[in-house]
Design goal:
The complex is a heterodimer of chains A (524) and B (299).
Chain A: H1 3-25, E1 36-41, H2 56-65, E2 70-72, E3 78-80, E4 83-88, E5 94-99, H3 113-124, H4 142-146, E6 156-158, E7 163-167, H5 175-178, H6 189-195, E8 209-215, E9 219-224, E10 237-242, H7 246-254, E11 260-262, H8 268-274, E12 280-284, E13 287-293, H9 303-312, H10 315-320, E14 327-329, H11 351-360, E15 367-373, H12 376-391, E16 395-401, H13 403-411, E17 417-423, H14 430-437, H15 454-465, H16 469-486, E18 489-501
Parallel strand pairs in A: 1-10, 15-16, 15-17
Antiparallel strand pairs in A: 2-3, 4-5, 5-7, 6-7, 8-9, 9-10, 11-18, 12-18, 13-17, 13-18, 14-18
Chain B: H1 2-18, H2 23-27, H3 34-43, H4 50-62, H5 76-111, H6 116-130, H7 133-147, H8 163-189, H9 192-199, H10 204-232, H11 236-241, H12 247-256, H13 260-288
The chains are: A alpha+beta (524), B mainly alpha (299).
Chain lengths: 524, 299
């Protein structure tokens, strides 16, 4: 070896030392805290303040930290939470809740009815910026309070330290279901005052867990609340790791650093074929995926054009092949779990019929603007739909936008057609009818197709006013049938939630709505 | 620097406002009344004209504030203060790998010009430059985390978490440095003064170290400066794949949600960092080559 060669070895030595140092650092791939259940979430929750939460991630963590007056049980029925019992007046407008006396916030203070009043008024406060006012705005006096006309909400009355009365403006049967939602969780006034805007990162509730660490974009650590009125959780705590990438999450799961993960679409086939079947859980999701039409302007203000598109697409085939059976075919907007009546019958795939209708509606001369998000799965589905419509002689241009631009565009009615889904906040057919099809909710209210049918409006409103389940179902059945007839959507499917877990994890269950899971039973 | 920064804030503010999309629709969730939307629009100042919004932003900056995130309500300056050290650490680690390996391999390739070693190194550097980081990152994760089980795949909780993202991030810069170093060293080797040095009887080591290396350093420093500046602004893909809590991931989330205070804060800090890095590069130029003047030229 010449002098140059020796010089190269000498100059390489810092780099070799660097790698040796790295290999010394690199000694373990394990990343667990003993006794804690390790979950994955895709993104940092935006906030843990119940007044501000609008995302599922924030909601599922808040459910472990807070309680509402009532909650959903595993059968999707409303059950007691902070309220031991309640009664509803015969005219359906006065709800009286009797609170349990042993509930304490994790700062040690006992809960009282005044906390409930404070929490509800905080949501409706005109000086606040809660986007969740719609959950409580049916309370009498709420609208005047929101406009700053009154200093209190007239319809929220304390009848003792542990009794609260809520009076509604008019009978509204979904109200009890709405109280199971995140925004109706109870917060302590002194902590909100102490932290101000930073209460979002220092949440204090009455729940089975309390937040002990929130390292943004890394993890959240929830420790068991030893004084929880519902008993002690079976695990020491929960750790939510924030991992945006699906493949990274799969690697963490396979290394045993995560105990449960949602199965990503890209890994579905491999996991279903290789994992122990007992470790895979699935639940019928309360959601509907659909292709929406802008019914307020040509070409889709013409029902023939909407029917033509609906007949031109073989939904069943797409569900079975591309979607690999990860859902059930939709028969209308309402998921079958919530439908207590016979499902509407949708026409079968009929390309010849589609061509005739498209001709009659003059659809073949038009270019249809089809808006979608940049999600790769959605792009694939859109291309499949485009191909079916091309076979029916229609010209479709796909316009792909990132999420917030997409939402702004469809809320503003820019698209001819768009692909989106709707997930239940509360398990009531009303949640799939009122926001999505009532004419008062065009655009950001949920009715992005700008569908307007006064008869449907009346049926939905009648359902909301009726307290009898049988009567409500009758109205909702009629409303759903009218909607299916009018075809504002092509109804695709209801997606399943699928998870896979480690063999050591016990009592794990998957629920269709995030707020049901309080994290109490699961352990090793 | 102040006029430059004001100019940059004006351009970035205008570009951010020109983006399609409305942050309010992300804040309000899936359903909301027009009154709620209007209230939130007012709360975040989106109801004012762009000029008034910009004036408000400049006033905020003059008070040393970067505002609060629309979504998390957290102070943007505090968030950046938490994330920037992570990005700094990652950038230093990546450059700590890229610079010695890139320069030495480039030097070796130049010395072995036309031989097998040169061809292999050149081929590897082309592969390195053209391999996307998400691909190399996932391959490294599969190898070191899943197969060998010696490195954690994601997180920001210690030095062992730094290894895979640092190697991933370093690869394109390493490959670029190999190419630049090789080209410049080959150019210098052909110059007259090297032949003069050889004729004077200097050893090959001293010619390599003193004459060739030093004269080839300027373009290499340029590449290092550019890469380092971009790393300090956050390496979005690498930070996302490895769950590294840095500026890149933070800025990316801000962009996705149209969280303007976050976007503007990241752009502003990124600009300052880039200007400072370029300033340091200029100073280093001067110390390496005194012919590079800091205050204009005498003619």
């Amino acid at each position: 070896m010449g002098p140059a060669g020796r010089a190269e070895i000498r100059t390489f030595s810092p780099a070799i030392s660097f790698f040796l140092a790295l290999s010394l650092i690199a000694c373990t791939a394990s990343d667990r805290i003993a006794g804690y259940v390790h979950y994955r979430i895709n993104y940092n929750p935006t906030t843990l303040d119940p007044a501000l939460i609008v995302d599922v991630t924030g909601g599922l963590i808040a459910a472990k930290l807070f309680n509402g007056l009532v909650r959903l049980d595993e059968n999707l029925e409303v059950s007691p939470d902070l309220a031991e019992s309640w009664n509803i007046s015969s005219n359906g407008t006065i709800y009286t809740f009797h609170l349990r006396k042993d509930a304490r916030f994790s700062n040690g203070r006992a809960l009282s009815a005044a906390d409930v009043k404070y929490s509800f008024e905080r949501i409706l406060d005109p000086r606040g910026k809660s986007p969740n006012t719609w959950i409580l705005d049916s309370i009498s006096g709420a609208k005047a309070f929101m406009k700053g006309k009154n200093s209190e909400v007239a319809g929220i009355k304390l009848s003792g330290p542990h009794t609260i009365q809520i009076i509604l403006e008019k009978p509204f049967s979904p109200f009890l279901n709405l109280l199971t939602m995140t925004a109706a969780y109870v917060v302590p006034q002194e902590e909100v005052r102490k932290w101000g805007d930073d209460f979002t990162a220092h949440p204090v509730g009455t729940g089975p867990f309390r937040l002990t660490q929130w390292k943004h974009n890394s993890h959240l650590l929830l420790d068991r609340n030893e004084d929880y009125f519902g008993g002690r959780a079976m695990s020491k705590g929960l750790r939510y790791r924030i991992i945006p990438e699906d493949l990274t999450a799969i690697t963490e799961f396979e290394l045993g650093n995560l105990d449960v993960i949602s199965v990503p679409a890209s890994e579905y086939r491999r996991i279903i074929n290789t994992a122990d079947k007992n470790l895979v859980s699935s639940v019928e999701g309360i959601n509907t995926y659909y292709l929406g039409f802008n019914c307020s302007r040509p070409p889709f203000d013409d029902i023939r054009a909407r029917r033509a598109v609906s007949l031109a697409i073989d939904r069943k085939r797409i569900l079975e092949t591309f979607y690999e059976g990860r859902g059930r075919l939709a028969h209308g907007p309402i998921p079958d779990i919530l439908r207590h009546w016979d499902a509407p019958v949708l026409p079968d795939y009929d390309p010849a019929g589609a061509r005739k209708l498209a001709d009659a509606a003059g659809l073949k001369e038009r270019k249809i603007q089809f808006y979608i998000t940049a999600d790769p799965e959605v792009v694939d589905i859109a291309e499949i739909i485009q191909s079916y419509l091309r076979s029916a002689g229609l010209s479709v241009t796909i316009k792909q936008l990132e999420w917030s631009s997409y939402k702004a565009a469809i809320n503003n009615g820019e698209a001819d057609m768009f692909w989106i889904s709707w997930w239940a906040d509360y398990p009531d057919p009303d949640n799939f009818l009122f926001p999505l099809f009532h004419s008062s909710n065009h655009g950001p209210g949920g009715n992005r197709t700008r569908y307007t049918n006064r008869a449907v409006d009346a049926l939905i409103e009648a359902g909301q006013k009726s307290s009898s389940r049988v009567t409500r179902d009758r109205y909702y059945r009629l409303a759903e049938r009218a909607i299916v007839e009018d075809v504002p959507w092509v109804f695709f499917w209801h997606k399943k939630d699928i998870t896979v877990r480690q063999t050591t994890l016990r009592n794990y269950r998957i629920f269709p709505i995030y707020s049901i899971d309080k994290g109490m039973e699961v352990f090793f | 620097m102040i006029p430059l920064l004001v100019g940059i804030t004006f351009i970035t503010f205008s570009l951010t406002k020109a983006l399609p999309g409305d942050p309010v629709f992300s804040i309000v969730g899936e359903r909301s009344s027009p009154e709620t939307i209007e209230k939130i629009r007012k709360e975040i100042g989106a109801d004012k004209s762009v000029i008034r919004q910009y004036a408000g932003y400049i006033t905020l900056l003059s008070q040393g504030e970067l505002g609060r995130s629309y979504y998390t309500n957290r102070n943007v300056a505090d968030e950046i203060a938490l994330k920037f050290p992570n990005t700094l650490l990652l950038a230093f680690a990546a450059m700590g790998i890229a610079v010695p390996f890139g320069v030495l391999l480039g030097f070796m390739a130049a010395l072995q010009r036309g031989r097998a070693a040169d061809k292999i190194i050149t081929m590897l550097s082309v592969t390195g430059v053209s391999t996307p980081v998400f691909w190399s990152g996932l391959l490294l994760m599969l190898l070191f985390s899943l197969r060998l089980k010696i490195l954690p795949p994601s997180g920001t909780d210690g030095l062992q978490y730094l290894v895979l993202p640092a190697i991933t991030l370093s690869l394109p810069a390493l490959a670029a440095l190999v190419r630049v170093t090789r080209i410049t060293v080959v150019d210098v080797m052909d110059l007259q003064f090297i032949r003069t040095a050889k004729a004077k009887g200097l050893t090959e080591t001293s010619i390599n170290r003193i004459h060739i290396m030093k004269n080839a350093l300027i373009p290499v420093i340029t590449v290092i400066g550019l890469e380092f500046g971009s790393y300090l602004n956050g390496a979005v893909l690498t930070e996302t794949i490895f769950g590294w809590d840095g500026m890149g991931r933070f800025a990316m989330e801000g962009i996705i949600k149209r969280d303007y205070p976050v976007i503007m804060g990241c752009l502003l800090i990124g600009t300052i960092v880039f200007v400072l890095v370029n300033l340091i590069v200029d100073i280093v130029y001067h110390s390496v080559d005194p012919r590079v003047r800091m205050h204009g030229t005498d003619r």
